[in-house]
Amino acid sequence: MKKVLITGGAGFIAHHLIYHILKTTNWEIISLDRLDYSGNLNRLDNILSTLSEKDKARVKIVFHDLKSELNPWVRKEIGEINIILHLAAGS
């Protein structure tokens, strides 16, 4: 199983991408977001509420600002990844 890191995971485009990946693959997803004015945890909650428990278990949400260095806790939560989809932006 592949493991994908999606930066800006609570953003408008990224949350749709997370839903698509969950419905069409068996990949594990790490959603990394700082949850400021453009990231909205409700978006992720809305898509996760429509999924099975098995699909929900494949998503991990990590709160982190990409402008800061990755601390040991964040590194551990992310772990080894196969794919990075960088969708974080301050717009």
Features:
4-stranded parallel beta sheet; Rossmann fold; 91 residues; alpha/beta; globular
Quick overview:
With 91 residues, this protein is α/β, with parallel strands linked by helices. It is built from four helices and four strands.
Shape, principal axes of CA atoms: globular
- CATH architecture call: 3-Layer(aba) Sandwich
* Percent helix: 25-40%
CATH topology name, in short, is: Rossmann fold
CATH class descriptor? Alpha Beta
Number of helices: 4
Extended strand count:
4
Order of helices and strands: EHEHHEHE
The name of the CATH superfamily reads NAD(P)-binding Rossmann-like Domain
Determine the structural class based on helices, strands and strand pairing.
alpha/beta
Average pLDDT level: 89
Strand order of the largest sheet: 3-2-1-4
Give the distance, in angstroms, between the N- and C-terminal Cα atoms: 33 Å
The radius of gyration over CA amounts to: 12 Å
The fraction of residues assigned to DSSP E strands is: 15-25%
* Total domain units: 1
The low-confidence runs, each spanning 5 or more residues with pLDDT under 50, are none
The major pleated sheet works out as: 4 strands, parallel
Protein name: NAD(P)-binding domain-containing protein
Domain NAD(P)-binding: 5-91
InterPro entries: NAD(P)-bd_dom (IPR016040), NAD(P)-bd_dom_sf (IPR036291)
Pfam family, one: GDP_Man_Dehyd
